[in-house]
Structures are given as structure tokens and as C-alpha cells.
Amino acid sequence: xxxxxxxxxxxxxREVWNQWAEEVRSGKVTVDRIDFSGAAxxxxxxxxxxxxxxxxxxxxxxxxxxxxxxxxxxxxTDFAESIFHKSVDFISSEFERGANFSKVxxxxxxxxxxxxxKDESNFVATRxxxxxxxxxxxxxxxxxxxxxxxxxxxxxSSATFGDDAVFSxxxxxxDVRFLQTTFxxxxxxxxxxxxxxxxLWGSEIKGPIISFDETIFLGVPDIATANFGxxxxxHNMTVKYQVANDANWRERLFKKARGSxxxxxxxxxxxxAAESRNHEQEQFFFAEELRAKRFHxxxxxxxxxxxxxxxxxxxxxxxxxRPALILLATIxxxxxxxxxxxxxxxxxxxxxxxxxxxxxxxxxLIQPQFKLRYLTTLVAAATLLLAVGExxxxxxxxxxxxxxxxxxxxxxxxxxxxxxxSDKWAFRMTALEVFGRRNFNFPLFGQLWAYVQSAFSLLLFxxxxxAFRNRFRMSGSSGG
Length: 480
Known about the structure:
By secondary structure, the chain is of the alpha/beta class. The protein has three domains: 4-244; 245-313, no CATH class; 321-466, no CATH class. It is 41% helix and 15% strand. The longest helix has 36 residues, at 444-479.
């Protein structure tokens, strides 16, 4: 319960209060604490107040805008579980001993600009419904913001943290700025979530433990110019790629990054992952760096085409399945094309079966977020069901039809396996004989396409080998 004498004295204003506080400090008046706990605070301006002993504001309710600017708390201060219904101002306030703001609810903006915390500060599970401004604040003791949430923007720019700074499991729904902030000890962000931009631009983090383990960024953090005293921990850190808000349809299709600085930030994350020997994350950030360069550093048509092609064909050398599926789709497409060009009869059952398999392969290549993937898969399933229905109605394909279809598949496969095995030519000649074109008199387009297929397949085999190399590299690093 609040002390009625403390509440009444505060309502008389700063001059009366500070005169009494001086008497307490000089020993003329003896009190062990100042108690406002549970009080409904209205009509009191705390600007410039001196609190000489332990001060308790626990579970208070502040129904009006309240100012604690230039206030000095000389002993332990406890605001735990209080509710500030309006904005609150602690500008240039001093907390000489521990400050407890755990489970406080700031319903509007909270300003701690230039505030000094000379001992531990506790903001555990605090809820900032508006903006949280700690510009130029000084945290000389351990600061704990674990589990706090901020609905508005958070500003810790030019702040100084002299001891451990803990932001574990915190949630930031607005922009977060740590511009030119100094961290002299450990910095912990594990399990935190940043739903908008986050910047450590020009900050200096000197502690031996810098942890972003399990942290979620819904946009690449601005860390390119941050100075880390030791490699940050980024185990299972999630960074979502953000497309520019002003992108046109073409830029949105090819994922133009939010800003030109995104590539540099991904490059820094790639370097951090490499220093940690986390090659899986290193490959991920490398891919995002190349993607973020589009329309910023990578602008010409040729370089854009190479960038996008490298992405679509192999996810920048990270995927084995994609180039392998593209290779299979190429072989099936060419096999069907040869049948059409050579006017060879393979029967409806075989044709539907080959077409359905091709459509299933193409559907697997389309990204899950596109509805076309599901449409293609449905059409593929329908086509295969047609093949089954035709087989029941017409009977199984004849041997000639099966041999013709298989021969076309063999010819297409040997086009793709240009550099593999000398005995493939015997299979190819047999297939051509069965196919009925032993004298190689395909139309000119068909003959030219065989060379194109061989070159394209060679590229796909290279990308498959690159992906396997990267996977073995990742496995080696995780095993070590």
C-alpha cells in the first residue's frame, strides 16, 4: 500500500519534496523507503525530484502523461507491474542503484533519452505499446530486456552498455535502431524476433559472447559496418528476404531487394558464418547476397540473366534436386519432341504416361508459393489417370509402341550423356534402328536440338557436382 504522506508530499511539488529529500540525506529525517505502491497517480509532476532512499512505485497506475525527467533515484527503484496509460518521460534521469521496470506496461511512448542506469536495470517482460526511446542512454550495470515486447519503434542509438546486455526472447514489431551503440560486454539476442528493420550501423560490440542464436529477422539486419570483437553466434538464425515495396511486377518477380545495402549485409553474415565454420548458413547467405544484388549492383541484361539462371537452375549451387529434375524434364521433353518430329506412333496409353510423368516433374520444379505448381500437379495426375483408363479400354500398349517410346528416351538420354561412357553409342545405334531413323534423317531442328541438349545437360551436371561438393563441405564442417 502507498504511504499517504509520500503521495501528499509529492503533490506539493518539487521544491517541497526536494527540501524534505535533503533532510533525509542529511540524517535529519529518518525513513527507510518511499512508497507509492498501488497508487493511482494523477496531477503529479516528478520533474527534477530527488528520491534519497529506496523508492517503490510497484503496481501503480499513471492515468495522465507523466514526467520523471531530470529525476534522481539515489537508491533501489521499483516500478514493477505498473501501468502508464499515457506517455512517460524519463529524459536525463539518473538511477544510482538498481532500477526495476519488469512487467511494466507502457501504453503509449516511453522516453528514456539520456537516462543513466549506474547499476542493474531490469525490463524483463516489459510491454512497450508505443515507441521505446533510449537514445544516448547509459547502462553501466547489467541490463536485462529479456522477454520484453515493443509495438512501436525502438531506439538505442548512441547508447552505452557497460555490462551484459540481454535481449533474449524479446519481440520488436517496429523498426529497431542501435546506431553507433557501444556494448562493452556480452550481447545476447537469442530467440528474439525483429519484425521490421533492425540496424547495428556503426556499433561496437566488444564482449566475448555475441549471440543471435535462434533469432528471427523478417528482413536482413544492417550489420555491415558493425564492429564485432568476436564472431557472433548465429546457430539457427533466420533471416527473411524482403522484396522492395516500390518494385514493379518484373522486379517483384525477380525479387528486387529492399535496398542497395542489403547485399553488403548478407555479405557480412556470410563472412560471420564462414568464421564460425557454419558452411550451410554461409551458402544460404551467399545465395541471398547474389539475389539482393539484382537491379542494384547487377543491372545489365547479361549479368541479370546469369544471376537469375544460376538461381533458378540450382539455387546458387545449393540444390541437387533442382538441376536433377531439370535434367529429367529435359530428357522427357526431348523424347516426346522426337516422337512428334519423327511422326512415330507410340499409342495413347504410352503418350499419356510420358506426358503425365513430364508434367509431374515440371510441377516439382515450381516454387510452392505459386498456384501453378498445384495446377500442374493436378493436370499431371489427370493425365496419368487417362493413361490408366485408356489401358483398361484399349489394352496394354503393343511391343512396337513400347520399343519406340523407350528408344526415343534412350536417344534423348544419350544426348544428355555426351561425355559419359563409350558404350552409349551402341545403345544409341540400337535405339535409332528401333526408332526407325537409322540414317539420322531427323529434321534439321531435331538435329540441332541434340547439340543444344548436350550443352545444357553438361551445365546441369556441373551444377549437380557443385551442389554435392557444397553438401560434402557442409557435412565435413558439422562433423568437425
